[in-house]
Design goal:
alpha/beta, Rossmann fold, six-stranded parallel beta sheet, two-stranded parallel sheet, 6 helices, globular, P-loop_NTPase, ATP-binding, UvrD-like_helicase_C
Length: about 220
């Protein structure tokens, strides 16, 4: 099972009851404490020491280096060189609009719509709200896995998922204590190209000196209106 860091005690009880043989069945747990988005509420039922995965094989080096700078663990990037992270420095209240413009520009560049996901960090994108209201959660997620159109989601519902291109709209954070983990999650979802739209100063404040250092290598992207 994945996202083990967010499981509470009652969830573990339910999970163990799903085993065909509770006495001799086995569990394989995968988790990342750096992406914990809920208050610690449980301990996995495994006494063995964890095996630490400290390499990023999913993303290009620029993406892995920036997302790794916001992690509390040392993560070694093993992906290809890749394009620099693109940064659109705008106030939080303008981040979603800038992200929308970025998606349009990326499609004009030739990216396939199914390659792109737009994620927000605070309020959900209106397109996400409208799609769920129109077709329901099941079809909304079916559309994601079909991979035929731009996906609109929130960082919290995109944990463990990925797309070649992620446009992260840093439109604020409801909980200051979770801001760093949410930022880390959002920055680490892209495989080939990451675009960040939001206030650079706030991102640097949340990410700290390591993130500030990595953002020096980013490409300032000024979209044409």
């Amino acid at each position: 099972m994945d996202e083990a860091q967010d499981f509470g005690d009652l969830w573990w009880t339910s999970l163990l009851r799903c085993l065909r043989d509770p006495a001799h069945g086995g569990l394989f747990l995968f988790g990342d404490a750096g992406q914990r988005v809920f208050a610690p509420g449980g301990t996995g039922p495994i006494d063995l020491p964890p095996f630490e995965l400290d390499e990023n094989l999913r993303s290009t080096k620029p993406i892995a280096q920036l997302s790794g700078s916001v992690s509390d663990r040392r993560i070694t990037p093993r992906g290809g060189a890749g394009a620099p992270v693109r940064l659109i420095d705008v106030p939080a209240e303008d981040a979603v609009e800038a992200a929308d413009d970025a998606v349009e520009a990326l499609l004009d560049e030739g990216w396939d719509p199914g390659d792109v996901a737009l994620l927000t960090t605070r309020t959900r994108h209106l397109e996400q709200v409208n799609r769920i209201d129109a077709v329901g959660h099941d079809t909304y997620w079916d559309d994601f896995f079909d991979g035929t159109d731009v996906f609109y989601g929130h960082v919290l519902n995109f944990k463990g998922l990925e797309r070649p291109v992620v446009v992260l709209a840093a439109n604020g954070f409801r909980d200051a204590e979770r801001a760093r983990s949410m930022l880390y999650t959002g920055l680490s979802r892209a495989r080939s190209l990451l675009v960040v739209a939001g206030p650079r100063a706030e991102i640097e404040r949340i990410g700290g000196d390591a993130a500030r250092h990595r953002l020096v290598a980013s490409e300032a992207w000024a979209l044409q209106g």
